[in-house]
Design a protein that fits this description.
Blueprint: E1 2-10, H1 14-32, E2 35-40, H2 45-51, H3 57-64, E3 68-73, H4 88-99, E4 103-109, E5 129-135, E6 147-151, E7 154-158, H5 165-181, E8 185-190, H6 196-209, E9 216-221, H7 222-231, E10 238-241, H8 243-256, E11 266-268, E12 274-276, H9 295-307, H10 312-327, H11 345-361
Parallel strand pairs: 1-2, 1-3, 3-12, 5-10, 8-9, 8-10
Antiparallel strand pairs: 4-5, 4-11, 6-7, 11-12
Helix pairs in contact: 1-9, 1-11, 5-6, 7-8, 9-10, 10-11
């Protein structure tokens, strides 16, 4: 199968982890008889430096013409004081909007070999395996007006939380569909005791429930959801929520796994290319040192194989290879324990490719 993948290395450790993810995908192509064509483009701070904008038009065009997009990370400290529209993060938000990838899937899985790295007790981590489905193109991050107003009494600021019923319905419907494929339990997270948008969210979830009677629907206020994810994460199967809440809860969920460096994500739309990226961010403090953990990027590549290409066996092989290196005790610095000798980014990449070849050969 021939597939075109646009690679957006971005900033910080992004180029390091995406380089290893591309090598892994090239190995998948060899082992399974596919052809993957890769095209690189700029985004974020790298795009500002090269082309004067965080999201060049050429980048958007290349992404739209591809079958899937693999992203590293965006963000650079030297842009932190600039206007929001000129920061690296504006490139990522703009790309999500341009591709209309309205749903972000973030699986929260505790790998048994890493359980000791989690800040939670062992008994709390039993059977933790859930997915957060986050609405990605609406809410506070995209609402207008957004402005600063100088008044006689000082500065006032306005951010607007805006959702249409259609935007709410499509993300909730996807949440129901994913729950049907898993444990048939859907937790809808909102703030319906305060926000009008959340009240419409909850009403829509209830209305759609009639179409998915096999799925158990539960509502949680976002503050309670944050507490429950720490108290008893094993109770969840699929969590669906709006943009801001999903951003915060998914990072909280990442930490219970032991390292945010292990968390992949997939951003999906209504038919265009999916966007796949690790959640860890650009980590500028370790950029260029060759010690970044590429496993989240590898798991994001596995999600690409599964969701965009329908290559289920290939995705399983990648995930099995990652699980095997962890079972073998191999660690990068962020997940290393006392007595471990951390691998470099490149060494971990080679280790996973070796396990992938062995996994395929054994079948």
């Amino acid at each position: 199968m021939n597939k075109h993948i646009t690679v957006l290395p971005g900033d910080g450790i992004g180029p390091e982890v995406t380089a290893e993810a591309q090598k892994l995908l090239e190995e998948v192509a060899v082992q399974f008889g596919h052809t993957f064509e890769f095209t690189a483009a700029h985004i974020g701070g790298a795009a500002i430096d090269a082309e004067g904008t965080p999201l060049p038009e050429q980048t958007v065009a290349r992404c739209k013409a591809s079958d899937a997009v693999l992203l590293g990370a965006v963000g650079a400290p030297k842009y932190d004081r600039g206007p929001a529209s000129g920061r690296p993060e504006a490139g990522l938000l703009g790309l999500r909007k341009a591709l209309d990838v309205f749903a972000n899937l973030r699986p929260i899985t505790v790998f048994p070999p890493l359980a000791a790295a989690s800040p939670l007790k062992d008994e709390v981590l039993t059977n933790v395996d859930f997915v957060i489905v986050r609405e990605l193109t609406g809410g506070l991050y995209f609402g207008t007006p957004r402005e600063r107003i100088q008044t006689d009494h000082g500065l006032e600021v306005v951010d607007t939380l805006r959702y249409s019923e259609q935007e709410i319905e499509r993300i909730l419907r996807l949440g129901y569909q994913i729950a049907q494929q898993r444990g048939k339990r859907l937790t809808s997270v909102d703030k319906a005791n305060v926000l009008e948008s959340s009240r419409v969210w909850r009403e829509t979830a209830e209305r759609l429930h009639a179409e998915y009677p096999d799925v158990e629907l539960n509502h949680l206020l976002v503050d309670n959801a944050a507490m429950q994810i720490v108290k008893d994460p094993g109770q969840f199967d699929v969590i669906v929520t709006e943009n801001l809440f999903g951003d915060i809860l998914s990072d909280e969920g990442a930490m219970i796994t032991g390292s945010i460096g292990m968390l992949p994500s997939a951003s999906l739309g209504a038919g265009g290319p999916g966007l796949y990226e690790p959640v860890h961010g650009s980590a500028p403090d370790i950029a260029g040192k060759g010690i970044a953990n590429p496993l989240a990027s590898f798991l994001s590549a596995a999600m690409m194989l599964r969701h965009s290409f329908g290559m289920f066996a290939e995705a399983d092989a990648v995930e099995q290879a990652v699980q095997q290196v962890l079972a073998d005790g191999l660690r990068t610095a962020d997940i290393a324990g006392p007595g471990d000798t951390p691998l470099s980014t490149a060494e971990m990449g080679e280790a996973v490719r070796t396990r992938l070849r062995a996994t395929v050969a054994a079948k």
